[in-house]
């Protein structure tokens, strides 16, 4: 595994290495999108609105798994780079145990206080029954949901991104099949969509447990050891990714409240459709960041400054090209996305289509910010990574969402995220340029990894 991370990558070989993670993220985004499609097409738009109303609760819980996955893998990969394989195994086992316990607590507490959570998130009487049915079911699978997010990063660290990809694809296909089965012929409604998602997540989670339990070499389960600073360092390194998910919960709540104010429940359904599209498009950048992170971490741990510079330049090329392509696809594909979740000719369809045109501007800027944050996480610079994520996913979005609608109304809601991403560029670009300007900076401005 360490030999694959030590490879001297070029543009094509690095993309090939990251490709499984990119596909994994796309399929993970499809979990929510497929749920939304069947809910919108075979239940109704109010059910779709309800699924988005309760989404912040799911996002908060998922943030923990992503934090330990991205932050913990940076720690573990760095130790492997320092030829401390056994210590890396013990730390990985401790992180898995911690994540599992948190997942169990989330499932129990979430079910006990489900209705109160829905009310807190702003569910109206029209949306309450749909919301509780969806949330109670999806939270019952919290342990496997968190483990899937954790293993997603550690399959890459273990040098088995292909295995992670195949498991995620299998989970995605299972989710799609069960979505149809539960929602259409069995008429289980929103609870059926949530059940399909949970059962799909069981595949990579259970398979991950089996793989790391019976692996004979490389990254595997062993006696857990909470080394000094393991949890705090992992949390700190993964704080940007956790901030992104926590911020997503807050921002989703804010958008839901704004759309309820300006457009009513159908407005929530419209913003849900746009955000589903965002899940799919940004999966490219998130997957790339996850895929290349162990390579950055390994070379950082082995202090190979020249390769770090090369990895950075390749990443910039990838972001610039893909950003233009995705923005164009999102803009011209807005009517298609709208038709997936709304009936043509309805006000909801026109609202979603128009919002999609405006929202597509964000894709010109978000890739740079997402990849920048991921790079700093991989380099154990959690402070800079968290700063970028916090600004782009919370501070600038909240400010834009509170101010722009005062002048532009509903259009201000659609433009909030594009404006936030653009403003974040003035932080992420200088940070990257300063860090990689001098080859010495890549290793000498940071303390050695633990």
Automatic annotation (TrEMBL):
The keyword Transmembrane belongs to this UniProt entry's keyword annotation: yes
Domain of life according to the entry: Bacteria
An example Gene Ontology molecular-function term: antiporter activity
PANTHER family reported for this sequence: MULTIDRUG EXPORT PROTEIN MEPA, SPORULATION PROTEIN YKVU
Protein name per UniProt: Multidrug export protein MepA
Organism: Fusicatenibacter saccharivorans
Keywords, comma-separated and alphabetical: Antibiotic resistance, Cell membrane, Membrane, Transmembrane, Transmembrane helix, Transport
One Gene Ontology CC term in the entry: plasma membrane
């Amino acid at each position: 595994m360490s030999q694959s991370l030590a490879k001297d990558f070029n543009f094509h070989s690095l993309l090939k290495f990251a490709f499984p993670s990119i596909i994994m993220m796309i399929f993970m985004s499809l979990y929510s999108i497929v749920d939304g499609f069947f809910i919108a097409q075979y239940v109704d738009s109010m059910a779709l609105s309800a699924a988005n109303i309760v989404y912040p609760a799911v996002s908060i819980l998922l943030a923990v798994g992503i934090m330990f996955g991205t932050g913990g893998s940076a720690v573990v990969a760095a130790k492997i780079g320092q030829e401390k394989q056994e210590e890396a195994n013990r730390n990985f086992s401790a992180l898995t145990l911690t994540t599992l316990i948190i997942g169990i607590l989330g499932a129990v507490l979430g079910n006990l206080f489900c209705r109160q959570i829905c009310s807190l998130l702003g569910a109206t009487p029209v949306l309450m029954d749909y919301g509780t049915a969806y949330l109670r079911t999806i939270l019952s699978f919290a342990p496997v949901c968190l483990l899937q997010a954790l293993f997603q990063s550690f399959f890459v660290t273990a040098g088995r991104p292909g295995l992670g990809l195949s498991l995620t694809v299998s989970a995605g296909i299972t989710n799609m099949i069960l979505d149809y089965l539960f929602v259409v012929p069995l008429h289980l409604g929103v609870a059926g969509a949530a059940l399909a998602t949970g059962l799909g997540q069981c595949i990579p989670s259970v398979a991950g447990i089996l793989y790391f339990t019976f692996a004979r070499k490389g990254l595997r389960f062993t006696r857990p050891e909470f080394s000094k600073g393991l949890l705090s360092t992992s949390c700190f390194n993964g704080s940007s990714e956790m901030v992104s998910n926590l911020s997503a919960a807050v921002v989703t709540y804010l958008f839901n409240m704004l759309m309820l104010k300006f457009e009513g429940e159908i407005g929530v359904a419209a913003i849900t459709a746009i955000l589903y599209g965002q899940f799919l498009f940004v999966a490219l950048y998130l997957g790339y960041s996850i895929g290349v992170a162990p390579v950055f971490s390994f070379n950082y741990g082995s202090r190979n400054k020249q390769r770090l510079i090369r990895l950075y330049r390749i990443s910039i090329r990838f972001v610039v090209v893909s950003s233009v392509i995705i923005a164009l696809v999102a803009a011209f594909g807005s009517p298609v996305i709208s038709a997936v979740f709304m009936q043509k000719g309805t006000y909801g369809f026109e609202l979603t289509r128009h919002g999609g045109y405006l929202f597509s501007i964000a894709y010109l800027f978000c890739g740079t910010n997402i990849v920048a944050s991921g790079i700093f996480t991989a380099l154990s610079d959690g402070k800079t990574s968290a700063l970028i994520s916090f600004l782009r996913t919370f501070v600038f979005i909240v400010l834009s969402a509170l101010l722009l609608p005062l002048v532009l109304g509903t259009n201000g809601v659609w433009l909030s995220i594009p404006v936030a991403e653009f403003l974040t560029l003035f932080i992420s670009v200088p940070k990257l340029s300063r860090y990689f300007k001098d080859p010495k900076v890549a290793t000498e401005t940071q303390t050695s990894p633990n």
